Amino acid sequence: MSNPLDLPEILGLIASYLSIKDIRTCVRVQKSWRSTFEPLLWHTFIYPSSTKQKPKLVLVRQNAEHIRSLVIDRTEPTYLATVFRSCRQLEEIIVRCHFSELGRPSAAKDTMWSCFQEMVRENRNLRAIVLERTSDFGYRPLPRHRLLQALQACSKLEVLQTAECQFNSNLSQSYFQAISPNVKRLSSVLDSFQGFKVPRNLVFPNVRHLDLRNAKMPSRTQLFWIGCFPNLESLTWELDRSVPTTRFCQLLSGCSQLKALGLVIPNGADAMTEALAVAPPLERLLLGGSGFKFPSFQTLKRHALTVKEIDLQYLWNVTSALVQEILCLCPNLESITAEDLNYRDIVKGPWACRNLRKFDVGISVDRGSMNAEQLHTLNQYVYRRLAELKNLQCLSICNNGCGWEGSVYSLNRMMKVSSNAGFEQLQALKDLRLFSCKLAFDETLIIDEGEQLVQWMINHWKRLEVVEITLKVSNHDYANLNPMRRKLRRMLRARDIQVIDSKKSAEYTCDFAGDFEDDNIEVRM
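Above: the chain sequence. Below: its structure as tokens.
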């Protein structure tokens, strides 16, 4: 009887549970495995890759049939034109080109984008296309028009996301036609619509997820456009003062299938209160940067039994006591993001949300108001409380708002990251993939526990992928710690653990909590 591990069907099933790192290892085991595992390494092609050398074009041509997801972070016309010509089995395209890369129009760029548009047209199984910072497409009108025409050929397109694109009135009709009947997720962030007109009888019954953040279009036109999507399950929008709150609330109350609401209402606490009062029971609430007062919190309680994700970042009126009450009231909560949760509030009651997968809350402590014994007891208690959240995948316990970066005041407000403080109780978090303590790690280095704790993380968190800690000098007085910082970075990288410098944390998104939007649409951003 043959070995089951020699059967491609068995190997393919095993591969579905493996990380890229594990797949690379399997490729090296034996030749018979290579034919099964190697194509999986090409499933997602990212340019430029994290490695220093880009794949040779001959390899790209040989393996293009295995590429299902194409991610472009930088333009290199000659190289990418060949990539675009070769890929004909794509299911997802993501373009993230920065403005600094635009330069002047050239024949090579024109050829590259012509190949891109042809690639879009030829990949009939394309399910998702994401265009970010894509003024490359718009240095003259023709490429944009041809691109929209190419999108119309994608009958299976389910995701269409654009950002910082420009659409004039002549392109409106082509844009609407590009939203195929199968599109379920539509995103237009910072797009400019000049002379954009929405036909009166326009309806998109299959769109479930709509994101119109900062779209450059009259607000009343946006409001009318939102009304064209009667079956929305998630809506993300910025509500400015020119939009009648009553009209928006009427529209919101009619969205009976709505499960997720992302609102930015600057200085609009009353509007937030009204919106939360009329919305159906929600699972996701993303309210970062909005006005928020106590009445808003009272209406938020309507959603306490259904909410799974809540983002209260940059809501300065949200107090530590309110964050604690949310943790106590929401039994199904899986993800929470907030600025501050103080030790003294944490001890007031048990948390109801034992299924949390993402905890991104700055835990603060007033060290000056308690003696050493009290502080030690509270440290132990808070770590014990966090250890109870055994399903956590993402744990961030320090924000950037505790004080000036690297200052004594900042360190005195942050949770202590130390074995003596009870940190090792977190060994219960077996599924942890991201850990962040940002600047609080400065103190860990000062008391000479950095190497010990990093080794502890490696030994106990076997699924750890990302660590966000201070490994760069934040204060000239600590420059003598540089050799240790470099050693810790090498230790983590040796285990393929990505190190995120805390100073870049604003650019990093912790998205390990999962996607609560259905339809099995996965777009990696």
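The chain has a mean pLDDT of 81.
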